[in-house]
């Protein structure tokens, strides 16, 4: 096999069935079969022609020359250097030119041809390259035939009747040139890509190596033939040349191994980058990271580098999932290879080399299942977790099989692959955690935004639903967050069951969810939302209890009017949120309409303009007087905030206070009201009046640890005694987080400030907590006071609160007193203080002064202060 040989590779890689459509692969096989028949036919015809041109004139005494030449060809082939070409074909640079050039002098054409055929085909069969025997046989015929034809032609041109060294040298160089041209033609037949420059460089290098080999063989023969006892010198030169070739072989192999490692690392990195661009579920992330075509390319590269008949990658996508197989090279046998055979149970992470005739029965059985005679196998592990297995079956390029360099190369590649797999599994986990809610496993807000972006692009038949459960905070307060989390998990499961597995679903925060419906419009969205709300509002059996729940659903869809706007996921979520807020008016399912957007814009303007409104005097404090029922004296006022907006006019406190509180500005509002109230109390004190002022507190004030210090500073600044300041707080505000509110209340009470529980009877009404609260007053909610005259139940509630308050030593204040009969009933019950429209509406500061002047009489008290008594 002079110069180069196709015996060391398979010109049609079996991995083509993985990379390319099966029809295209079958077309390549068909073209190569036609090419093989053409080469074989040409070889036989050429051999017959040359045999007739150069007839055999030898005798039977030359019988030993044929076996010696065949043995020489075999030996020269085993000392070859493998060169891999990116087209999928590899050539072997060998010493076969040496026995060939000698064969020109010692044997006729037929003997050299027979020796070459026997050596070449025997090597193919030993290496189990049975699928390309006919092609290689034809190539062998054309190599030797063209070599003797050129040698004979040169001999005729020189006018010689015997073989000369120029003719032998020319013929020897023709053989590798013919083999190279046949291989390049095979590349074209198989439609592989190879640049012309690459082909020319390869041909030039092969001719240079062939010339060196032929020169050494020719020189050795001429020296031995012309000089007796010169064979030791020729042998020394041959051994030196062999050592030089082997050194070059090691250097070339090291270079090719480094290139292969670089290629594999780049392939893994590129496929990892492509996988990172695909947002999906965790399983999808991992599957994307193990793309079949990408990993088949990696397997093919490893196969080519090891010159193996087959490389199998078995990769585990998830810890509990089965191995996924990616293969390059000859297909596995038809039956299924057991997934837990001996090769899959190997410990450690280093490369093992097994031959079928040298292995224990379990290993031998595993090799038989794979149809292999030898195997390199290495587990891919990370932290003792099996990520996969790499198997390389049956080396083709050398007679002796896999060597130590192959073991080292596969071990290094396996280390790279294990690191890449582990990193990408970690990346998939991190990406999953970044885009998913850890409690429910659903998408989170960023994940929903990314998944919904593409379906919403250029579509109007889609809708974003927002779902809110209104019992989350209640369950958290009553039963703890563990139970509330169970509620959320159960709600997410119900939404998934109601909408199906393919609908993008996210948990936004707390007990708020979002879903994307595609291909759904108008009435169908309304029906889906109502059906979903009905399912979510069913009682929740959580462990041993059942929790009643209610759900609100709002939805928004892109409309034609939005074509000029950037209607992205966030905008639709915002609209759906506005629709959910609109459901609090009574309807539990609402679709977004533009008027809701105006409400949201109004609220946004109020929040953003609030500080400016304070500075410009748009916000003011009104005061509603409170009167002692037994003495008819004005004992205090309640400070109530009012806002006259330049665009919206008079704003209801129930509208802007919650918005200000939600925006985190309640501290600013409380500070403003407190300063105004203390300034008013200071003026009254300067006039000799002792009138207390009551300021409402928010739950956010009770969460501010610095709030007591701020109040102390305000009292000192206005020089108002703390007993003239009352803070009113709702039961729900205190009970929202009593562990945080109680220390703040105790600090305020320690300052001497009066604390009152507002709207008593409508909140938790927990007697246990009421006894713990450092309060001085309870204010009966006006809903009970207004209903006293017509509802005996309300009358009983008011009487009970009065009695309860007095039993606890508290002052009882009734608000909402609008009729004389209510005032008389409260006075008969022993209620301490009354407040309501019967006495006065909330008044601005100037009108309050006029009211005091007109409706009260001033008299000196026991401590020289002036007291105000209501005129009857």
Automatic annotation (TrEMBL):
Polar residues bias spans: 1-10
SMART domains: EAL, GAF, GGDEF
Domain EAL as annotated: residue spans: 603-856
Keywords: Membrane, Transmembrane, Transmembrane helix
Membrane-spanning segments: 34-55, 101-126, 133-154, 166-190, 202-224, 230-248
Superkingdom, natural source: Bacteria
Species this chain originates from: Amycolatopsis acididurans
Domain GGDEF: 460-594
Residue ranges, annotated region (Disordered): 1-22
Gene3D superfamilies from the UniProt entry: 3.30.450.40, 3.30.70.270, EAL domain
Record-given protein name: Bifunctional diguanylate cyclase/phosphodiesterase
Pfam families, sorted: EAL, GAF, GGDEF
């Amino acid at each position: 096999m002079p110069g180069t040989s196709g015996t060391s590779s398979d010109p049609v890689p079996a991995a083509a069935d993985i990379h390319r459509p099966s029809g295209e692969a079958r077309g390549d096989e068909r073209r190569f079969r036609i090419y093989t028949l053409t080469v074989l036919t040409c070889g036989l015809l050429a051999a017959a022609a040359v045999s007739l041109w150069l007839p055999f004139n030898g005798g039977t005494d030359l019988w030993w020359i044929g076996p010696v030449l065949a043995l020489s060809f075999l030996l020269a082939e085993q000392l070859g250097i493998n060169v891999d070409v990116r087209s999928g074909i590899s050539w072997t640079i060998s010493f076969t030119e040496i026995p060939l050039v000698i064969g020109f002098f010692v044997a006729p054409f037929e003997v050299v041809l027979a020796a070459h055929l026997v050596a070449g085909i025997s090597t193919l069969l030993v290496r189990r390259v049975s699928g390309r025997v006919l092609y290689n046989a034809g190539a062998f015929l054309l190599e030797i035939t063209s070599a003797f034809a050129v040698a004979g032609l040169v001999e005729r041109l020189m006018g010689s009747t015997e073989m000369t060294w120029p003719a032998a040298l020319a013929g020897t160089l023709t053989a590798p040139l013919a083999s190279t041209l046949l291989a390049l033609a095979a590349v074209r037949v198989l439609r592989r890509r190879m640049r012309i420059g690459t082909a020319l460089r390869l041909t030039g290098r092969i001719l240079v190596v062939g010339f060196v080999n032929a020169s050494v063989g020719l020189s050795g023969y001429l020296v031995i033939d012309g000089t007796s006892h010169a064979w030791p010198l020729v042998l020394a030169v041959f051994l030196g040349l062999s050592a030089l070739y082997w050194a070059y072989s090691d250097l070339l192999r090291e270079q090719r191994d480094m290139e292969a490692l670089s290629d594999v690392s780049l392939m893994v990195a590129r496929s990892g980058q492509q996988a990172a661009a695909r947002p999906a579920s965790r399983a999808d992330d991992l599957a994307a990271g193990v793309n079949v075509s990408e990993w088949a390319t990696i397997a093919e590269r490893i196969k080519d580098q090891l010159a193996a008949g087959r490389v199998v990658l078995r990769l585990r996508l998830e810890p509990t999932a089965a191995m996924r197989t990616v293969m390059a090279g000859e297909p596995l046998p038809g039956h299924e290879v057991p997934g837990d055979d001996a090769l899959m149970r190997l410990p450690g992470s280093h490369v093992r080399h097994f031959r079928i005739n040298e292995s224990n029965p379990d290993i031998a059985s595993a090799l038989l299942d794979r149809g292999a005679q030898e195997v390199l196998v290495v587990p891919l592990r990370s932290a003792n977790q099996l990520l996969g297995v790499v198997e390389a079956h049956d080396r083709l390029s050398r007679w002796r099989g896999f060597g130590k360099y192959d073991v080292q190369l596969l071990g290094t590649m396996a280390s790279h692959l294990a690191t890449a797999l582990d990193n990408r599994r970690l990346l998939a986990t991190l990406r999953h955690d970044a885009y998913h809610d850890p409690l429910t496993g659903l998408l989170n807000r960023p994940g929903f935004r990314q998944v919904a972006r593409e379906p919403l692009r250029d579509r109007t038949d889609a809708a974003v639903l927002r779902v809110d459960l209104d019992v989350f905070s209640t369950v958290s307060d009553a039963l703890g967050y563990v139970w509330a989390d169970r509620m959320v998990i159960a709600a997410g499961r119900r939404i998934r069951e109601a909408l199906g597995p393919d609908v993008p679903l996210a948990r936004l925060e707390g007990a708020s969810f979002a879903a994307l419906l595609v291909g759904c419009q108008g009435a169908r969205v309304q029906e889906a939302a109502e059906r979903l709300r009905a399912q979510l509002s069913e009682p929740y059996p959580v462990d041993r209890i059942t929790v009643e729940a209610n759900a609100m659903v709002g939805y928004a869809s892109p409309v034609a009017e939005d074509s000029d706007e950037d209607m992205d996921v966030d905008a639709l979520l915002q609209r759906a949120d506005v629709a959910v807020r609109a459901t609090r008016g009574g309807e539990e399912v609402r679709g977004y309409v533009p008027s809701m957007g105006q409400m949201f814009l109004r609220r946004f303007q109020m929040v953003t303009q609030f500080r400016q409104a304070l500075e410009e005097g748009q916000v003011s404090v009104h005061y509603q007087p409170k009167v002692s029922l037994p003495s008819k004296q004005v004992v205090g006022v309640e400070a109530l905030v009012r806002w006259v907006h330049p665009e919206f006019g008079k704003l209801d406190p129930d509208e802007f206070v919650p918005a200000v509180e939600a925006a985190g500005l309640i501290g600013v509002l409380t500070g403003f009201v407190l300063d105004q109230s203390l300034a008013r109390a200071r003026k009254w004190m300067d006039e000799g009046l002792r009138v207390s002022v009551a300021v409402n507190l928010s739950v956010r004030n009770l969460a501010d640890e610095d709030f007591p210090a701020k109040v102390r500073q305000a009292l000192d600044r206005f020089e108002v005694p703390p007993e003239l300041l009352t803070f009113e707080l709702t039961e729900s505000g205190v009970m929202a987080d009593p562990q945080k509110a109680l220390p703040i209340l105790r600090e305020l009470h320690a300052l001497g400030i009066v604390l009152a529980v507002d709207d008593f009877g409508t909140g938790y009404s927990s007697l246990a907590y009421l006894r713990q609260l450092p309060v001085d007053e309870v204010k009966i909610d006006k809903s009970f006071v207004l209903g006293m005259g017509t509802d005996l139940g309300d009358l009983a509630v008011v009487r009970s609160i009065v009695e309860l308050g007095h039993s606890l030593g508290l002052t009882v204040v009734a608000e909402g007193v609008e009729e004389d009969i209510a005032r008389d009933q409260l006075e008969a019950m022993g209620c301490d203080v009354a407040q309501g429209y019967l006495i006065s509406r909330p008044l601005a500061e100037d009108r309050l002064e006029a009211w005091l002047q007109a409706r009260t009489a001033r008299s000196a008290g026991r401590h020289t202060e002036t007291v105000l008594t209501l005129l009857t």
